[in-house]
Amino acid sequence: MAFRDLIDDVDDVVFETLGDSAFIEGRAEAVLGMFSAPWKQPAFGKVHSAIREPRFEIRVKDSDGLSKGLRVTVDVPALDGGGEYDLLQLEPDGNGLVALILRKRA
């Protein structure tokens, strides 16, 4: 079994167990990923993250056909940043994940 196949199996378990879900315009089913709303994260002293935009990280295999401008509805409580966003750009990390950079819809 190839390394990528093993990692894909690990990702299946991690995303199913710990992942958040989002509905992406044009898709019938929710996509699992990891949502981050940096303005909602706890502050520890004066340490600030370089992350500024809300982002939803998904697997490369779930990113086919995605493009700028799609509506992404993140299914987490509103107090945790859930709600409707516009997809601004896709940022692959080279390790099998793609960050969907989001902007909150007005």
TrEMBL record:
Superkingdom classification of source: Bacteria
Pfam families cross-referenced by the UniProt entry: Phage_attach
Name of the molecule in the record: Uncharacterized protein
Source organism per UniProt: Pseudomonas canadensis
Taxonomic lineage of the native organism: Bacteria, Pseudomonadati, Pseudomonadota, Gammaproteobacteria, Pseudomonadales
